[in-house]
Structures are given as structure tokens and as C-alpha cells.
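pipeline/complex-builder :: batch 7 item 3
reading input block
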Amino acid sequence: MTIDPGNGAVMLAAIFLVLNAGLSLALQLGFVRSMLVAALRMTVQLALVGLVLEVVLTSASAWLTFGVMGFMAAVAGYEIMARQERRFAGLWGYGLGATTMLLGSAIVTVFALTVQIGPDPWYAPRYAIPLFGMMLGNAMTGIALGLNALTGEVTARRRGIEAHLLSGATRWQAMTPAMRRAATAGMVPIINAMTATGVVALPGMMTGQILAGADPHQAVRYQLMVMFLIAGATGLGLIVAVMGGVIRLTDNRHRIRLDRLRGS
Amino acid sequence: MNTGLQIRHLTSTIIDVADIAVRPGAPVALVGRSGSGKSSLMRAIVDLDRNEGEILLHGVSRSGMSAPLWRQRVVYVPAEPGWWGERVGDHLTGPDSAGTRAALGLDHIRPDQPIDRLSTGERQRLALALGLARQPQALLLDEPTAALDETSRDMVETLLDPMIAAGLVLMMATHDPEQARRLGLQRLEIDGGRIRGAT
């Protein structure tokens, strides 16, 4: 049996935010404004998503489904760009993160829908949109962290990388340490999540399913599948993004091209 | 004459060099005030910065070979060498450098020593030893003895002298006219990225 919390229960949960705000004010911790803005933003966003999902799920239109997914990808692509301390100049600034995130997320989502879950039609919005959203969210975080680490590493260690190039190394050999650090930075969140899942915390999706009345075994199977898919999408998008970043940060004469970063 | 390093119409954002040649056994001292373009010229020759122009080494064009191969033949040792690994041993993966390291008084340096624990002079000599171990056809040295005491400077000159006599193609940036005289370097002055003429 599913218990619907209702709007009143949701409002009651916000009491703890008010408590936090009071404590922050009393102790001058300074996070009241940002916390309240974030809470308000989340409320508005989720309310709108609820409305949109209702329309999309009811209509089951392919155009509407892919339109929503495209919008999600466009926003996530912008988020990747916004999180970069040193952005690539021109179209690469948006394009590299957005396309690699879309690539990893789309491949894994289509695989899951067509091979594992098998809804009819395969793009059924009830399955496609939440799955794609989870892939996007995690790939976005991983790629944003990875690209930020890559550009930071190359900027900070330019002289060492150039010394390696001067010794006769190719750009791929010289950039390997930076690539390794970037890939590690991007994969840390999902690796940490997999390590802690089930021990430190029950994942949100699984908790939601159990609260919604699902069999715990089924919830665990879904969660395992989703975590594997997320790790796959993040890793795939991240690797392509980091390799694309190396190609853009160097040229075919094996030189470092920091001039291709904005403001360099 | 096709031997040596021939540089024709080399331009970058900083330099504009019409025509220079460095012949085997006739080394060149690149002189000029700080910021005149000495390092930029050397970086352009080894293709580390974007540049246009034709460079030939013993008649073979730079554009006809990959940049890594070019940099194995034309070795550039910067004034402040960079390091891609944390320990000395990380940089000993190329040709055996035990001989050149010993000649530059670096026998005591162990592979497991962190690079940042070496003195500035030790790092400069190590970079030179590694560069020389690669048996370059042309050598570009950017103030190689600027951070060295007299004894270490003499070691460097003693090592370079027979190599020059054997026909090494050498361009060395230096602020020391005495050193240029001792090594028999021909003066090539650069100012504002342009060569002012050899004397």
C-alpha cells in the first residue's frame, strides 16, 4: 500500500529548514539566504517538472518525450560549461561537455531501454525520462569535474608537460598524468557512491521505490542496474570528454595550446 | 651548404627572423637583454610555440618530420627546466645518462630523490645531462650556467668543448661575454624578436 504524504506533510518537512534558518541567524553562520533560495528554486523546479511529466506521460508522444530529454540535455550541457574555472573558447566551451555527456547518457539509456527493461514503445516516457535524467545528472557532474581538473592540471603543470614534450614524447604520452588525474576526479563521485551505497546510505531511487510500496528485492535490483548504468554513462562520457579536451589543448605538432582557453 | 641548422623566415607572435644559420663546429651565442626574444626563438625552433617558417637540419626540413622526432634531433634545454615526474628516476627513462651526469658532478643524485629537493644548480645540470645524453644533432641551450657556481660552470664548458670540436650544432643564449669567448661562440644579437646581425 502506498501512503501519499500530501501537501501538508511536505510543508511540515520544511519546518526543519526554518529551524536551520533560525540557528544560522542566531549563530551568524550566513547560509540562510542561499539555503532558502535553493529550497524555493527546488520547489518551483519540481512543481514544474511534475506538471510537464504529467502531460508527457499522458500523451506518450515521441516528439514530446525527446523534446523534454533534449531540453534536459541542453540545460545540463550549460551546467558543465558554467562549472569550468577555465572554459574552452568558442563552441568548444559548450560543445565538448554537452556532446560527450549526451553521447554517454544516450548510449546507456537506449541500451537499458531496449535490452534490459523493454517497455513498449522502447522510448516510453515513464521509463525513458527518469533513466535519462539519472544518466545525465551523473555524467554532467563527472564530466564537469573531469574537464575542470584537466584544464587546471595543464595550466598548472604546463612547464612539466612541455619538458616531457621536449624529451621527444608525443602529446598523448606527455598528457597521460593530466588525463589520469582528470579521469579520477570525474569518476570519484560515482565510485564513492557505489562504495557507500547500502552501507552508509540507501540511495534515493531505491528509498523512493520502497516508500512507494515496491518489493525491496525489486528495488535493490533496479538500484543495482541503475548504478551500473550510471557508472557506465559517466565513464563513457568522461573518457571521451577528457580525450577531446586533450586534443583541443594540444595540436598536431604536439604543442600545448592554452590559447584555446577563454581569456588565455 | 646543407649542413647545420638553417632558419628561414621564422615568425611567431614574438619573433620575426629572416635568415640565420648555425654550422657544425661554429657555435652561436644568442645575446640580448631579457625579454628580447632569445627563449622565444629557441621555443619556435623546437616547435613548442606556434610559428611559421622553414627550418632545416642538415638539409632535412622540420615540416617533413613529426614534432617528437624533430625534438629528439634538436634538443632544447630551457633556462628553468620543467619536470614531469616527482622523482629523478621518473626522468631517466630515455637514453643512458650516467656518463653525462657524472661529467656534470651529479654522481651523488639518486633516482629516488625528489626533484624539488635538488638545488637550482643541480636541476639545471641534470636537465643539461639528460639533454646531452640524447646525443642531439643540434643543441639549443638557454643560459645553461646562469644558476651555477664557477666549478659547475667549468664542468659544463669542459663537457661542451669537445662536442663543439666534434661538430655539434650549438646555439646558446648567454649574458656572459667571457663564456662566449671561452667556447668560441659567434655573437648573434636579438632585439625585439629580430636578429640585429652577426659579427
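note: The mean pLDDT of chain B is 94.
queue -> next item
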